[in-house]
What does this fold into?
Amino acid sequence: MDSILNNLPVFLFWCIATLTALCAIAVVVSQNIVRSATWLLFALGGTSAIFFLLGADFVGATQLLVYVGGTLVLVIFGVMLTAQGPFINMKTSIAEWAISGVVGLLLLGVLVVSIYSVGKPAPKGDVATYAPQQRLSVFNQNSSKNTNDGAKNSQYADAIGLGFLGVGVGPAHHNPNPLKDGEPRVVRMNYLLPFEIVSVHLLVVLIGAAYLARAKRRRRVEA
Amino acid sequence: MPEFVKDVFAAPWFPYAVALIYAAVLMGFMLVNAIFSVWLERKVSGRIQDRLGPTRVGGKFGWLQTLADGMKLLVKEDIIPKSADHLMFRMGPYIALAGSYMAFLALPFGYLVVAQDMNIAIFYMLAVMSTEVFGIILAGYGSGSKWSLFGGMREAAQMVSYEVPMAICVLVPVIVAGSMNLTVIANKQQWLWQWLVFNDPFTFIAFLTYFTCATASCKRAPFDLAEAESELVAGFHTEYSGFRWLVLFMAEYGSMFAVSGIASLLFLGGWGLGFGEMVDHFTLLIGADLAIYVGNLINVIVFMLKGWTLVFVMMWVRWTLPRLRIDQVMMVCLKYLLPISCVLLMGVSVWRLMVPHIVQDWFRFGLLALCVGFVAMLVKQWFTWASAPPGSAMPGMWRMTKVTGYQGAQKQ
It folds into this structure.
């Protein structure tokens, strides 16, 4: 009991991850298509729970709002309204199981290898001294919050907002073109360009949806 | 402080016990809110319809009626239709309840009287209340009946569409206050002229628009196509009886209180009565140690009363206005409320940036004076209106002057 309490985040992670993985497997295995969508709901909700567990409140809430509240509702609408009959069942052949199993295992291998190779080697040099946690102290009201605990600092959505506007809040890089007096300038990553790209992308999607859903004019029939 | 209390505070399981206590308190509040709201609904609907509502169970006002209802629903037979999808039929109400319950996690009842003081509280609440739609969809589809399916689909379309203007209207006071943290927003509204509803014309209209969108997203009349008794039997909850119906309605009344709570925190000064922070006033009177408890207790009570007042307004509107058709519902959302909320968003940004401060202050006090005058006029009318001709007045109406010839209803 004590070891569970002392490592509660890890214990919770294992619980949530197991449930999410089981639901994801159920999405694939389940034969009723509406039930697949329901298990997908729980899988996405589990992902959101992992975000909250990591302390990324903003991303977790966005996951719920966008995926569960938006995408999944749309999926359910599409699934329900295009089914040929109520509670339709799908049958998958053995060949399809084999191909999808191979592809899935390959993807799993790629993911596992890349996850275990992140973070080694440890960052060297004075770039590591410009860690983002120290930069975020401008948002903290009292200095006791100035810790290297990324989870605590990531609770502040102000940093994300400023990052979208172009203020640098990401990891630091050395500027290849230093200032004239020879002192190397430290350049921070910001999220302005991705933000603009996503905005234009959403605009394109909106226009496309409006165009596709427009009421078509009836052609005049030549008598 | 006794020694064992220090041991309890330092124990490794203490934060988790506190979390469990928070969860239990919030669940208890949701249940009590459901009991109270059902009773209030029956009384309000009764009085508006010129009858008394429950008067027998538990005394003159029937306040134990909901308890009797609850016991009846618990022992009712649990019927699941033969053509229903068992898993989805059972899961639907609980997903709706989970969505509604999770929203209370970030809802502050007083200054820092909140389960989790999140920096993105209002965003989290909107996100979580949008998962309630799924419960409705599953309930509607899983019931295996046409009424439920139509009700569920209409309801899902309505709730999802109204989330957009609701989120934009919520952004308006967030822009004025500068934070998404509900505690911070409510803390900036300590005095009556600081209430965000009087801040500028755009926030004032945003309050009305937000309340309309909130009513629609809680599927209350005049937007209650999903439960329309005259059209769809009972919509998505046709096949639900007994405890499952109770769970669905606990979710609905919980959501009603949550959106009313958000409205009062964002626009109506949150837990304050309008003349400053209660804890500060009581610190001057009775000293700091006791003032924290008394002040916070008053804050919590005031917040709950404000929330229930807005819930009462929702019920009042429900039993007064006729229902909208589904195409009218969608038209109101997409053609009226959405452009209005976009204009409000632009307007409040321009107001904050370009309008000089002296105009802002004058407007704030002017609008406050207008509203106070309006309320004073209403109160005066309540106490002086005796213009009903004799024999035509309803029994039980407020009456402070004598009207000749009318004897009032006889008590039986």
About this structure: Residues 203 and 399 of chain B are 37 Å apart (CA to CA).
